[in-house]
Design brief:
Layout (H helix, E strand, L loop, with lengths): L2 H12 L6 E9 L2 E11 L7 E4 L6 H14 L4 E5 L15 H10 L10 E5 L6 E2 L4 H13 L3 H16 L7 H11 L4 H8 L4 H16 L19 E2 L2 E2 L1 E5 L7 H18 L11 E6 L2 H5 L3 H13 L5 E7 L7 H4 L4 E4 L7 H11 L10 H4 L7 E5 L11 E5 L11 H9 L2 H6 L8 H39 L5 H33 L1
Parallel strand pairs: 3-11, 3-12, 4-9, 4-10, 5-6, 5-9, 10-11
Antiparallel strand pairs: 1-2, 1-14, 7-8, 12-13, 13-14
Length: 517
């Protein structure tokens, strides 16, 4: 048997599944595609998460696009984090050309261009369905992790949530939280200290500064109503799963907001979705492009929380896939959970690069057909090392793979196409409605204004009373003579009384004289 025949038999043995799967590409040997060595991905183990890695320009995003298409065609909805704006083309069919015809011929799968059902989402000013969440939904522990608070400050945050719950003060957005902090140090300080214990002004000040920090990164647009229901990510149009594309092109320089959003989303999915066990296909797949941004600026507490949820969320039938330049961008605790690995080419320009390549090669199964460390630097665009977990959870043979071409547009949508897509969405009309209910901000502000008004009124009354008493005491102490006006008034009164008496006496006398007559 020739080496090619051995290779085909090797790949086929590792890619034979009883359950449903899809073809990702065809195996290559010595840089050439080998007919019959199709590389398949089983749907059953996709909730074990995955990684798409490689240097800039090697085709990572297009691989993400191809996998999302295949999942949609299998009726599996996906959420895709699009930080570069490259994925909106999924809503439009692609175009054939000579290279695509050759590629698909080598793979053994004819090319068929077709669009996928797409919903555009946003947590910023980008066009799309606005995804929001309330502060209350985060709870004190998760909200504290987002702000990177210490134990003392976390305790204060727990008191804030407890007080607002006890007094029916909805915490919907960041202005509610800021108003509550202001109330705690002002009008409500005595009440809260009596009920829940002393609150340090220094802790409140630190929390306020942390809130301002994430607010400056745009978190004020994320916190609020109407809250997004994660079940709306699991929709189908006909037999195709909906691809929800989160447009994040304007928050690349705001990693804390991105980390906040990702953690809240994963936590909400984990707490909302029922346990599903090992199904034949995942319920939802989440793709995070430029995944290093999730971990780069995340605090240790936030990173620990993300790692914990990634480990647990697979039991809910959810697969999480990270797309980044180098596998070392992802924490080891997360890498150890990944089932599917698609490794595009890496470039070795420095000694540090060579060490990273060697470390990456060690994370893949050994192969009799490749020197992984060498081949990984020679892969072309649209080529990658691929290994997955088979239905028994065993890694499939490592294969340098010529990947499928996307069925959808490999370019972005125009502004008009984006506008039309958003305007035709019923969900966008529902979630984009602006809601500003009466919440902690309005309630506490009214209480503080009323208290300030009463305090001002009381102060003015006390000042007037004090001024009056001081004037009276001053006069008595100096035995002050009546003023000219007081004297004039007094003299005028005396004269008036005198004239009245004289008039009455005169009338009496004249009356008496009249009687005598």
């Amino acid at each position: 048997m020739s080496q090619k025949e051995d290779f085909v038999a090797h790949i086929q043995a590792g890619n034979t599944y009883k359950k449903d799967s899809f073809i990702l590409g065809v195996g290559m040997l010595d840089g050439e595609p080998v007919t019959g060595a199709q590389v398949k991905i089983p749907l059953k183990t996709l909730n074990r998460h995955g990684l798409i890695a490689g240097a800039t320009g090697t085709g990572k995003t297009k691989t993400l696009q191809v996998i999302a298409e295949q999942l949609s065609l299998k009726g599996i909805p996906c959420l895709l984090m699009d930080l570069k704006g490259d994925l909106s083309g999924l809503a439009q069919p692609g175009k054939d050309n000579d290279h695509i015809t050759w590629r698909q011929g080598a793979i053994g799968v004819p090319y068929k261009a077709e669009p996928m059902p797409v919903e555009l989402l946003s947590i910023s000013k980008e066009a799309g369905l606005k995804m929001r969440a309330t502060v209350s939904e985060f709870g004190p522990v998760l909200f504290s992790k987002i702000l990177d608070l210490n134990d003392t400050q976390t305790g204060v945050m727990s008191v804030i949530f407890k007080y607002c719950d006890d007094h029916k003060l909805p915490l919907l957005d960041l202005k509610d939280m800021k108003q509550t902090l202001q109330f705690m140090m002002g009008e409500g300080k005595e009440e809260i200290s009596k009920e829940y214990g002393f609150i340090s002004p220094a802790s409140v000040g630190a929390i306020s500064r942390k809130i301002i920090e994430i607010e400056q990164q745009g978190a004020d647009q994320f916190f609020g109503e109407r809250s997004f229901d994660v079940k709306d990510l699991c929709r189908k149009v006909g037999d195709k799963g909906v691809l929800s594309i989160m447009r994040l092109t304007d928050i690349q320089d705001r990693p804390k907001l991105f980390s906040t959003f990702m953690l809240s989303l994963l936590a909400e999915v984990y707490s909302t979705f029922p346990e599903s066990g090992d199904k034949d296909a995942p319920k939802l797949c989440i793709f995070i492009d430029e995944a290093h941004l999730v971990f780069k600026e995340a605090s240790d507490a936030l990173q620990d929380q993300i790692e914990a949820i990634v480990k647990l969320i697979r039991s809910k039938g959810v697969g999480v896939f990270f797309c980044t330049q180098n596998p070392t961008d992802i924490p080891d605790a997360v890498l150890s959970q990944l089932g599917l690995k698609v490794q595009h080419a890496l470039r070795a320009f420095t000694a540090k690069d060579r060490k990273a390549i060697k470390k990456t090669a060690e994370n893949y199964p050994l192969s009799d057909f490749y020197k992984t460390e060498e081949v990984i630097t020679k892969l072309g665009i649209g080529e990658a090392f691929v290994t997955a977990l088979n239905e028994k959870g065993i890694p499939t043979p490592l294969a340098a793979t010529l990947l499928n071409a996307p069925k959808t547009r490999m370019d972005i949508l125009s502004k008009n196409e984006i506008k039309d897509l958003v305007s035709s969405s019923d969900l966008a009309r529902l979630y984009n409605e602006e809601i500003d209910k009466k919440s902690a901000y309005e309630i506490l502000k009214a209480r503080m204004e009323k208290a300030a008004e009463e305090e001002h009124k009381k102060m003015m009354e006390e000042q007037n009373e004090k001024a009056s008493k001081e004037t009276s005491r001053s006069r008595k102490s100096r035995k002050e003579e009546p003023s000219f006006i007081e004297k004039a008034s007094k003299n005028t009164m005396v004269r008036q009384i005198g004239r009245t008496i004289f008039r009455e006496i005169t009338r009496g006398i004249l009356g008496a004289l009249g009687v005598k007559k």
